[in-house]
Each structure stands twice: as structure tokens, then as C-alpha cells.
Amino acid sequence: MSKAIGSPNAGIPENAFILERKPKWRFTMFEAGALGFLFLLVAVWTAFPMLWMIGASLKTNVAISNDPLSLWPARPTLEHYRYVWTQVPFARYIVNTFWVSLIVTAAKLGTSVLAAYAFSFYRFRGREVLFYALLLTAFVPFTATMIPNYLLVARLGLLSSVLGVALPQLADGLGIFLLRQAFRSVPLSFYEAARMERVGPLRILWHVLLPLVRPSLVALAILFFINTWNEYFWPFLILKEKSSYTLPIALQMFTNLEGGTNWGAMMAASTLTSLLPLLAYALAQRQIIETFLHSGVKG
Questions:
Q1: 13 within some domain
Q2: N or C: which terminal CB in the chain sees fewer CB atoms within 10 Å?
Q3: Span 144-192, pLDDT tens digits
Q4: Please, what is the angle between helix 90-121 and helix 263-294, to 10°?
């Protein structure tokens, strides 16, 4: 290739400026195989209890006693699911748990979006102090707020109600932090261009910013939903009537009634309880992992 006369790079080979980037770590074939085998063992160790739970729910109690470590029965049966469904009003408990999880998830997501939006794009006195104060609430143990929250819910007359379970959980410091990090990864020029077009703050949030951070919103919603679905102690304190129980409370009640001997029925009840969170996580696991990986890109 010809070069311009007088060019400062004349006479220098074209590949002189190409720098070869060498990886910091190189694994031999043996090391890569050993590491993959280790990860496989960890995955099997983690998944085994869940697979055993599903397999045991499809066995008879005799088959569980004769061959307790097998993951899949020779003759699957649904008798335990029929028994659980007729002995316990699981449909009602599923609806109760779903409504509590839906209300808490929607409230946490809404407050996290609005707070993260303000902390990311507005400047006001004490912004950083207030943000870190909210973030610190994520590290306050539940036992420190349990009694004040219970007294507040009781004085408001919200015991044995969905609102009583949801009221102390309408905001989340970790959610505000993660969405703030997601908003700060959006180029500021998008926000400034919308402001120059005299677009209102809420329209900027709804039409410009939220579509850009949709994966983070999905991941956060799934995490909020799963955490609320699996919550046991706070609903146990608030819900006094059996008709208002959530699934974790119903599962504990069913286990006590069976006396810890009907393993097949208990595993069927556990499978029904964990089915929806497992499906939700399986559908959104990529967004969840990306959200936590990218949460520290901008600080």
C-alpha cells in the first residue's frame, strides 16, 4: 500500500502498531478438564436435593423406603399429588401467595424505579447521604424491625390480611441500588436530548429509560417475587386465619399433620410450593445474572 509523502508513519510496517493481547491466564487441557469436572460436581451436588424431591413425590412410600437414593421411580404415580390436593386447600393457598407476591413485587419495583431515577438524574442537597442511608437498610436484620412492624400492622387493624403482610415491604434498598446502577449505564445524552425536546420527567422515564433497562427490571421483579413467595416467618406472624395462609405456612402445617412419616406426600407438597419460583427463575436466569454482573460497571 502506498503512503503519503512526508507522513510520519512512512517506512513503518503496517503491522507495527498491532499489539497482541495475551490472556493473563492459560489453562492446560488437564486443568480445564479438572475445573469443568469440579463445576459438574458442584452442579450435581446442588441439584440433587431438588431432583430427589421431585422423584420422591412420584414414588410410593414403599418405594421410597426400599430405594431411597434413586432419583426416578420405576413406576411413577400421582397418588401423592391427589392426596395433597384433597387434604389441603392448596388452590386457595396458591392464590393467597400469588397475590401477596404480586403486590409486594409491584410496590418494590415501583418505589425502586422512582427512587433510582431521582438518584441517577437529579441533583439535590444530601443526595449521596440519602442514597447510602437507603442502601444501609438492606443490611438491617429482620429481627430488628420485626416488633415495630408487627405493632404498626396490629394498630392499623391489618392482621390476617394481604395488605398487612405487604405493608412493611413496599420498598427495598437493594432494588434501588441495582436500578440506580442500571440507569447510570444509560448514556446521559439520551436523557439530555429528551429534556431539550421538553419531554416531561415521567414520559422520559417511561418511554426512554425503562425500555433501555428492561432486562434489569425483569430480573429484579423475578427476585422480588421469589423472595416474597418463599417468605415464611413474617406471614406466619401476621396471618392468623387458615384461609389466609400462604404456601410456606401451609407446607409447615401439612408436615406437622402428617407427623413427618408420609414422605411422598410431603415431597409432593414441597414440589407444588416451589414449582412457580423455579419456572420464573428458569425463564429469567440470564437477565438475573447479567443484572448482578453489570451492577458494578458504573458507581
A1: no
A2: N
A3: 999 999 999 999 999 989 899 999 999 999 999 999 999 998 888 899 9
A4: 10
CB 263 within 8 A of CB 194: no
Give the other-Cβ count within 10 Å of 3's Cβ.
11
Q: Tell me if 182 sits within 8 A of 120, measured CB to CB.
A: no
Predicted TM-score (pTM) of the model is 0.80
Torsion, CA 38, CA 40, CA 43, CA 44, rounded to 10: -110
Q: Is 3 among the domain residues?
A: no
Alpha carbon distance 57, 269 (integer Å): 8
Helical H runs in 10-121? 29-57, 61-66, 79-87, 90-121
- CA–CA distances in Å: residue 63 to residues 54, 58, 255, 261, 270: 14, 10, 20, 14, 18
pLDDT at site 91: 87
Q: Which residues form the domain of 251?
A: 83-294
Look at residues 41, 62, 77 and tell me which one is the last residue of a structural domain: 77
**C-alpha pair distances (Å), 264 with each of 49, 63, 86, 173, 261:** 14, 10, 15, 40, 9
